TrEMBL record:
High-level lineage: Bacteria, Bacillati, Mycoplasmatota, Mollicutes, Acholeplasmatales
One function term, GO molecular function aspect: ATP hydrolysis activity
Cited Pfam families: AAA
Descriptive protein name: ATPase associated with various cellular activities family protein
Organism: Candidatus Phytoplasma oryzae
SUPFAM superfamilies listed in its UniProt record: P-loop containing nucleoside triphosphate hydrolases (SSF52540)
Length: 146
């Protein structure tokens, strides 16, 4: 818990100080866990260069997940869409969406967010089976365009 003025404690505004508090807390807890049980801990970041070395050294392995290659984007989006009901026209539009994404460096998270936002639009529009329509997909993509 970060101290706050209402409790009579010092308010912390310096981001590096907050980062240090979090790092120290994590390192202490990690040591406690190591002594008790085998626990797998996975950390992720888009800014590995900003992670404290002491913290980075606590992980046994580093796995790099690169951005999708152009030829992988369509398969990834289709895989994400498997769990959604999508209209025929939205499915056909997917090919244009894929081509537009080429060489734009969309992360997997950004692409997944486009689909999730399209689904939220379909729910908000109270569509039968919350089916994602072409308009949902287009609007969601336009809002997240690079």
């Amino acid at each position: 818990k970060i101290p706050n003025d209402t409790q009579g404690e010092t308010k912390i505004e310096d981001k590096s100080e907050i980062a240090n508090l979090i790092t120290n807390f994590f390192l202490n807890k990690k040591e406690e866990l190591n002594n008790k049980k085998s626990i797998m801990l996975i950390g992720t970041t888009n800014n590995l260069d900003k992670i404290d070395k002491k913290l980075k050294n606590r992980f046994n392995e580093e796995i790099y997940v690169d951005l999708l290659k152009n030829e992988e984007i369509e398969g990834f989006l289709k895989h994400i869409l498997l769990s959604y009901d999508i209209s025929y026209h939205a499915f056909v539009y997917l090919e244009k969406l894929v081509q537009f994404c080429y060489n734009k460096n969309y992360s997997q998270r950004e692409l997944k967010n486009i689909i999730e936002k399209a689904y939220i639009k379909s729910v908000a529009n109270q569509r039968k089976n919350h089916s994602i329509y072409l308009s949902d997909l287009k609007e969601s993509f336009e809002e997240n365009k690079k």
